[in-house]
């Protein structure tokens, strides 16, 4: 059994341009991985060979936070990640006819459909584990460049959660440049009762911008990049920016109330996580984070609260990685 893990993310800056011909929006975003993690384990069933073109993941077990909301079929992003890596090995070894069936276990620690890349982290961990598994069997892995290409095909956030750390993402968010970050930031996340679809939030942004008529000035990530390099949350808080926030607040007005409440509880800053609806609150230190977390508990708009630190790593072996 191979045991892996990957972290979720918060976007501390997100500027969205116009929709492109392929339907995606051009982004400039700064990701930071957070300490909430997904666990993914893969077990091979060598007595059950699966011919090329058939699904390798025969059993998918999902436990943990919001497990009931996760698809168990071939639409699951972690299943698609495994199949994509298998296909890359079939292309590399054209004579290969079978691979062993797999059991996959996913334990969720990141809120589902909240804008924190929980599904993308499952995919990144599965992709990375599968490459390790087949790479050790065939003598060499696919290599970073090919893994990143497969990750980008699976979703815009998958390349970042595969790598972790802190990075500037451009294109759909999949073209990454590492950013220097010091210190450890303390975050509290307020989870919403219902997920919010990413395409719906981007559509709402387009609608609001079309209604407003005049073009917006482009946002510059310079202040966020400087704040990250100092490790000072007092500098980062006022620089936090997410263009998608107005769209998510328009669809879910209660998120704006949550932002105001967290500021009264002493959070230094607040930002919508990716396309939401999770709200992220930046706190001065662990104690301040505990106070905000406590104050948000039981608030009607909020289905749950959790705390995490940033930055965190990318896809890697979990404790007891191999047995
Ligand atoms: O890449 P991902 O699967 O996360 O994207 C989901 C959807 O979110 C896309 O189909 C698109 O509608 C929207 N999206 C976008 N611009 C981006 C990323 C996502 O419009 N940069």
UniProtKB/TrEMBL annotation:
Reaction(s) catalysed (UniProt annotation): 4-CDP-2-C-methyl-D-erythritol + ATP = 4-CDP-2-C-methyl-D-erythritol 2-phosphate + ADP + H(+)
Protein's UniProt keywords contain Electron transport: no
Keyword terms: ATP-binding, Isoprene biosynthesis, Kinase, Nucleotide-binding, Transferase
Domain GHMP kinase C-terminal span(s) in chain numbering: 225-297
First-tier enzyme category under EC: transferase
Active site residues according to the UniProt entry: 9, 157
Source taxon at top rank: Bacteria
GHMP kinase N-terminal domain residues: 76-165
EC code: 2.7.1.148
Annotated binding of ATP, by residue: 111-121
Pathway assigned in UniProt: Isoprenoid biosynthesis; isopentenyl diphosphate biosynthesis via DXP pathway; isopentenyl diphosphate from 1-deoxy-D-xylulose 5-phosphate: step 3/6
Function per UniProt: Catalyzes the phosphorylation of the position 2 hydroxy group of 4-diphosphocytidyl-2C-methyl-D-erythritol.
Family of the protein in this entry: Belongs to the GHMP kinase family. IspE subfamily.
HAMAP family registered for this protein in UniProt: IspE
Record protein name field: 4-diphosphocytidyl-2-C-methyl-D-erythritol kinase
